[in-house]
Amino acid sequence: MDPYGCDLEVDSVVAMSEAFEPVSILSETECWNLLSSASLGRLVTSVDGVPDIFPVNFVVQHRTVLLRTAEGTKLVSTAINNDVLFEADDHNVAEGWSVIVKGTARSLRTADEIEEAERAQLLPWTATLKQHFVRIRPLSVTGRRFSFGSEPDREFTAV
Question: Domains along the chain?
Answer without folding.
Answer: 27-147 (2.30.110.10)
